[in-house]
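queue> holo job accepted (protoporphyrin IX containing FE)
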Amino acid sequence: MWNAMRTFEAGDFSSWLREGNFIIEPFATYYVLLGFHAIGMAVVVGICFMLSSRILGFQLVVSMAAARHMLRLAWWGFWLNLASGVLLILAQPRREFMTELFWVKMAVIVWAVLAMRSMGRGLAAVRPVADARGGVVELAPWSLRVTALMVDLGWLLAIVSGRLVGYTQPPPPL
Ligand code: HEM
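queue> job finished
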C-alpha cells in the first residue's frame, strides 16, 4: 500500500496537484484547492453556527422551515470541503496519513457530520407552541440545543486541527 502511494505521488496527477499550476501561472493548484477548501468551510461552518444560534433561542423570527432550507446549503459547503479535501490528500497521501492530527481531524469531522444530521432531524421535529402574548413560537427542545452545540464544537475542532496539520506534518517522505 505504502509503495503504491509512493508510485502514485510520483505520477503526473499527484505532482500536478502538489506542484503544478491551475490552468495558468501563478495559480498554484495546491493553493487554489486550499481556497476552495476555505470557501466550503466558511459555508458549512457559517451556516451551522447561524442555525445553532437560532436553535439556542436567538433570532426567533426565523422559522424552522427556513432553518432547514439553510441546512441544505450547509451540506453543499460540506461536499465542497470533502471534494477539495480528497484532492489535497491525493497531492501527498503518505505525508497526510503520517500526521497524527490528520486522523484527529477526520474523527471530529465524522462527529460533526453525525451531529449535523441529527440537528436536521431535530429541526424537522420542532412543533409551534402558543406564547404568552397569544402568538406562536417554535422553541427547540434541550436535546436539540445540545446537538447544536455539539455541531459547533465539532466544526471548531476541525478548523483548529485542520490548520495544525500543516504545522505538525513531517517532511515529505522519500
Ligand atoms: C470532509 C473531509 C475533509 C478532508 C478529506 C480534508 C482534508 C484536508 C487536507 C488534506 C488539508 C491539507 C492539510 C495540509 O497539509 O496542510 C486540509 C486543510 C485544512 N482543512 Fe480540511 N479536510 C476536510 C474537511 C475539513 C473541514 C470540515 C474543515 C473545517 C471545518 C477543515 C479545515 C481545514 C483547515 C483549517 C485546513 C488548513 C488550511 C490552510 O492551511 O490554509 N477541513 N484539509
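queue> The first helix runs from residue 2 to 10.
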